[in-house]
Every structure is written in structure tokens, then in C-alpha cells.
Amino acid sequence: MEEISSEANLDFRDMADLANGDDAALNRLMDRHGDLVYRFLVRALGNEHDALDLAQETFVRVYKQRTRFRPGRKFQSWLLTISSNLARDRIRWRRRHPEVPLPASNEMDASLSAGTSRPKQPDQITSQNEESLRVREAVMALPEDLRLPLVLFHFHGNSYEEIGEILKCSAKAVDSRLYRAKKMLRGRLSTQSKKTEKV
After folding, report:
1. Do residues 36 and 11 lie in contact, with contact meaning Cβ atoms separated by under 8 Å?
2. Rounded to 10 degrees, what is the CA torsion of 5, 9, 14, 15?
3. 46: domain range?
4. Statement to judge: residues 31 and 82 lie in one domain
5. Which tens digit of pLDDT belongs to each residue from 8-38?
6. Residue 152 DSSP class
């Protein structure tokens, strides 16, 4: 708990410094939270290039809104609100401008998941990569309003209250969306498994 409040204090101090004209404070915030934002966006969008682009745009927005940050608010939630708004805009833009998506690489999956130090056998790696790809495709197929809470809860460990704050909805709505997302995800994965078995 001490670690969290210590990081929160650093965030509040850096945002105050940024608001007072110390532009180097933005670099400190990016060093501390850049990976979190990028990982969230990769999972929300399924595209590394878009994620990198929007991670940079997130911190541009932080800079532009530096005087509007309220110290009583958790910085990380505020940051992910900005990122999720950008992700939604990009998802809507994609719907209007469809293109062939480039799947995120297996290297990216490996870097995002907590790995073990023990080397794996080639068949284990292949099986894990296939499973990872199946899960990623199933998550990306979810509607945006179900995908974002799922990513925030399962991959980033945010509470229902934090997700509600980020997505501007109630904790009860988050609970309902997560329930629907999991149900839909189970259905998609089950269908994919049956197709694979037939092949």
C-alpha cells in the first residue's frame, strides 16, 4: 500500500510541476506509465502500430490537459480514461475505414504476458502461441463496450469502480458488461475449438 501511495504522490507532484511549466515532468510520467498505456492499447486495439501511435497521443493529451487534472483523482485512472477514449475513437474510425488488420506478433504476446524463466519445449511454444492467438482473436471480436472493461479487469487488474470511472459508467454496469463479455468469449472459444477438432 505504501508503494501505491508513493507512486501516487510522485504522479501528483509531476502533474503539479507540469502545470507549472516543468515540461521534464511529462518525461517522468511517461517513464513510469508508458508501458501500462501501451499494453492496454495493444490489447484494446490488437495492433501494435496503432497502440504506439495512441500511446504517444495519450501523453500529448496529458500535456494539453495538465491544468485540468484534479489531485483527488487517481492519475492512472485519469490516464487510462484518456487512452480508452482514444481507443474508442480509433475503433470507430476503423469501422468506417475497414482494412485488412495486421495481427499483433507472438513476440508482443510474449512481452505482454508474464513469462517463466524455465525454457519450454517447441510443441509447448507452438500450442501456447496457437492458444494465445485464439484468445486474442476472440477478445478482438468482442464489441468495444465489452472488450475495454474485459481488458482493464483481466489484463490490468482494475477494480469495477476504477473501470467505471475510466469508462464513465457505474460499477454495476461494469459487472454486467464483464459477465456478457465472458459469456461471449466462452462461446467464441468453444466454437473455435469445435472447428479445430473437425479439421
Report:
1. no
2. 90
3. 1-97
4. yes
5. 889 999 999 999 999 999 999 999 999 999 9
6. I
